[in-house]
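Quiz preparation item.
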């Protein structure tokens, strides 16, 4: 019984530490190198993501996001991880 309690406690703490930060109903995943990544959700477009992060200069955001993520165009897919400029 004690082992189950220890295992449960460990798994609870582990899941709390490793759960991505939820912001604006989207998954924001901090990285060790200071970059921010975003997990694409169903229905997202690169334009929508640009509006969330940089509404002042969307064209520049799109250009930098494509460059950072080696995208030839604006096509993105659900569960894809993008680096946010």
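Solution:
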């Amino acid at each position: 019984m004690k082992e189950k309690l220890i295992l449960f406690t460990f798994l609870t703490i582990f899941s709390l530490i490793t759960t991505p930060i939820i912001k604006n109903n989207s998954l924001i995943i901090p990285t060790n190198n200071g970059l921010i990544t975003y997990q694409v959700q169903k229905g997202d477009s690169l334009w929508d993501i640009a509006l969330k992060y940089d509404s002042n200069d969307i064209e520049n955001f799109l250009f930098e996001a494509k460059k950072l993520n080696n995208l030839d165009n604006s096509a993105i897919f659900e569960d894809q991880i993008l680096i946010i400029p």
